[in-house]
Write a structure and sequence with these properties.
single chain; about 230 residues; mainly alpha; 2 domains; elongated
Length: about 230
């Protein structure tokens, strides 16, 4: 995502941020913080690829729209969406649904806030909030506060410490490259080892078969030789 933002400093980048964050809110198993950090780095003075305010607004808009989309689906389709569509039962099981319902009824605002940091649980929480007909205005206020706090914090930190984050990113990238090369070398070495071992085994089997055939030929010629000696005698 970071490379995409750095290489496409245009309207496409802002649209990409919004779309990916909407997908994370709808269940894409990617932490939204990763996208926000990438946007903050791409907007920093070090990179200068994006406008900071536009990138921040795109992050906030994508996060909120993703949340409201899941709430809307739950509110308008109710529990039937969990039964009639194949995708949602994989997304939220009946056991998880009951657990989320209890948490929302007991600790609504706390659950909405904590769900932002839990990959795979954020979507089911907001979907269940819609199914339970949680007051929309209250949900919007709580979610807007939580999303603004989380997005602003991660965006500001990544914007401020972009140099350090890019340094870590380069080290991780170099480590991934070295690890990839090491794994590829190990695979090639393993394939060659087993190939050579197989060829040697085949060669040994062929030698044994050849020796066995020679022994059989020797045993077959011995009676004929003895008979010829007797006849000569």
């Amino acid at each position: 995502m970071l490379n995409f933002l750095l290489e496409n400093a245009s309207f496409v980048s802002y649209l990409g941020i919004v779309v990916v964050l909407i997908l994370t809110g709808a269940g894409l198993p990617v932490p939204e913080e990763v996208i926000i950090i990438a946007a903050g780095i791409a907007s920093s003075p070090t990179s200068g690829a994006l406008d900071p305010w536009m990138a921040w607004a795109s992050c906030l808009a994508g996060a909120l729209v993703g949340d409201y989309l899941m709430y809307w689906i739950g509110f308008h389709f109710g529990r039937s969406v969990l039964r009639e569509h194949r995708w949602f039962p994989r997304f939220i099981t009946p056991e998880r649904e009951r657990r989320v319902e209890q948490l929302i009824l007991l600790h609504g605002p706390k659950v909405f806030f904590l769900a932002r940091f839990l990959v795979g649980l954020r979507g089911p929480v907001y979907l269940t909030a819609g199914i339970l007909r949680y007051p929309f205005r209250k949900f919007v206020l709580i979610d807007a506060f939580c999303a603004t706090l989380v997005v602003s914090t991660f965006f500001a930190l990544s914007y401020r410490f972009a140099d350090h984050v890019l340094g870590w990113w380069k080290k991780i990238h170099d480590a991934e490259l070295a690890l990839t090369v090491g794994i590829a070398a190990a695979i090639v070495g393993g394939v060659l080892f087993f190939y050579i071992r197989h060829r040697r085994r085949v060669a040994r089997i062929r030698v044994k078969q050849h020796l066995r055939s020679l022994k059989l030929q020797v045993h077959a010629t011995e009676p004929a030789a003895s008979e010829s000696k007797k006849a000569a005698g």
